[in-house]
Design a protein that fits this description.
By secondary structure, this protein is an all-alpha fold. The chain has three helices and no strands. The longest helix has 32 residues. It is 74% helix and 0% strand. Helix 1 packs across helix 3 and helix 2 crosses helix 3. The chain starts with 9 loop residues before the first helix and ends with a helix. It has one domain. The structure holds ligand ISJ. Ligand ISJ binds next to helix 1, helix 2 and helix 3. This is Chorismate mutase.
Length: 96
């Protein structure tokens, strides 16, 4: 995890945001790889095997760690993340 910072100027804030985005990109890449492995292991992978109950549960767990955003704001973010992973997995299944 990145250590918390309290930047005071716009350039400092933007530099701190860029550091967070770099960490997010690394985590998103790792997440997509793990979610892709799950798609290959599930009896029905990809969009056809979507598990909305699990998606709601992971959003609820994340909301505990991100209380300002809360589940309602995290849900569309994670929906986009999950769908990006499913699109990638389906593409990789078509072109291994
Ligand atoms: C990864 C899975 O497949 C899908 C993708 C998910 C995800 O990216 O977190 C969650 C649930 C499923 O819709 C899974 O079933 O665990």
């Amino acid at each position: 995890m990145l250590r918390p910072e309290s930047p005071a100027t716009i350039p400092e804030c933007r530099a701190a945001i860029d550091r967070v985005d770099a960490a997010l990109a690394t985590l998103l890449e790792r997440r997509a790889a793990l979610a892709g492995t799950v798609q290959r292991l599930k009896p029905v992978g990809g969009f056809a095997g979507r598990d909305l109950a699990r998606e709601r549960a992971l959003v609820a767990r994340m909301a505990v760690r991100a209380p300002s955003l809360g589940a309602a704001r995290l849900a569309p973010v994670m929906n986009a993340v999950i769908e990006a992973g499913l699109h990638l997995a389906e593409e990789q299944a078509r072109h291994p």
